[in-house]
Amino acid sequence: MRPTLPPIAVTAVDLVRVVMPLVQPFTTSFGRQTERTVLLVRVRGDGADDTEVVGWGECVTPAAPVYSEEFTDGAALVLRDHLVPALLRRDREVGAEEVGTRLRHLHGHRMARAALEVAVLDAQLRAVDRPLAEHLGAVRDRVPAGVSVGIPDGGTHALLEQGAGYLDQGYLRIKVKIEPGFDVTPVTALREAFGTECALQVDANAAYDAGDPDHLAALDALDELGLEMLEQPFGPARLRDHARHAARWRTPVCLDESIHDATDAADAIAMGACRIVNVKIGRVGGLAEAVAIRDRCRAAGAPVWCGGMLETGIGRAANVALAAIEGFDLPADASASDRYWSEDLTEPFHLLDGYLEVPTGPGIGREPRPEALRDAEVERLFG
Ligand code: SMG
Ligand code: MG
Prior knowledge:
Blueprint: E1 8-28, E2 31-46, E3 52-59, H1 72-88, E4 93-94, H2 96-102, H3 110-127, H4 132-136, E5 142-144, E6 146-149, H5 155-169, E7 173-177, H6 184-194, E8 200-203, H7 213-222, E9 230-231, H8 239-246, E10 253-255, H9 262-270, E11 276-279, H10 287-300, E12 304-306, H11 313-323, E13 355-357, E14 377-382
Parallel strand pairs: 6-7, 7-8, 8-9, 9-10, 10-11, 11-12
Antiparallel strand pairs: 1-2, 1-4, 1-14, 2-3, 5-13
Helix pairs in contact: 1-3, 2-3, 5-6, 9-10
Bound molecules: N-succinyl methionine and magnesium ion.
């Protein structure tokens, strides 16, 4: 990442909430989502020559603390009462790197922090007319797209139908959400239906208990299916469980919920808890940490890839820029806008031969369409 961007003089920070219905329910081992309350951070400021710039960041928290401790109302509160005041208390001139240093005394709330960091960076980049991907050192102009398929209401049959539809559209790999009771049968059926050349992986979202022999038997059976990876079978803090079983399995373990920063990633790899790391800008507190994780993983020889949190075009734009940098070679959980929304908040992302194009406009290269924000609830945090 190039460090030399001029700061912006922040004049206002707003939280913008938009409720977005998903095109179909998304069910994981922790629950079923039919819509997302999207929390956007909007930063306004003056760039170097006093022109007004606006920057956007998407806070990827789910409505409830189901994926991690973070949830949308908590993120809004911590942004309003702690993060934004601490960022701007002494000096309203700010750059993205200050989001790390000025907030160092505050714990956790990484998704909220990340939204603030990206919004500030987006404004800074727009002020100098530079795209985020270029700033991050992107090495590709399109990124391979995977698709994450939730646990369907209609069971294995519905999963096969959905999988076939996504493969027809051109997605380069399929990730299936699993939980105890929905694992070996559906994933075996997919394998049989689509063959071994279909890149297939599974994500348990921490639903398995390493002390339960039935759970272990299911994971052992999945290990026979030649999957690309097995994502987060056990709880976020259960690194020793991951290490113990990863050593027996052929399928590489990928960690998601367990990895909060670059040190977590290096430690998890060193102890054999994973061989692959899912990098999400929100989960790790921002782009700077996401790049630091890439660096540590590269030094350890572990591949990384960009995960997703059902983002709108705002969050997706940042994800796609990250996925365009060196080291992010595996398909991202970054699907086209129509996989999530009948109408995205921004100009949509399209799937072209299995890839999403990296935005080339200044900053994240996407902004909300004014009509999409018409019914948004806006709360002023600063200014
Ligand atoms: O953005 O396409 C997407 C969803 C990717 O499966 C996905 N994310 O654990 O990796 C994960 C899940 C968490 C999302 S639930 C809020
Ligand atoms: Mg995951």
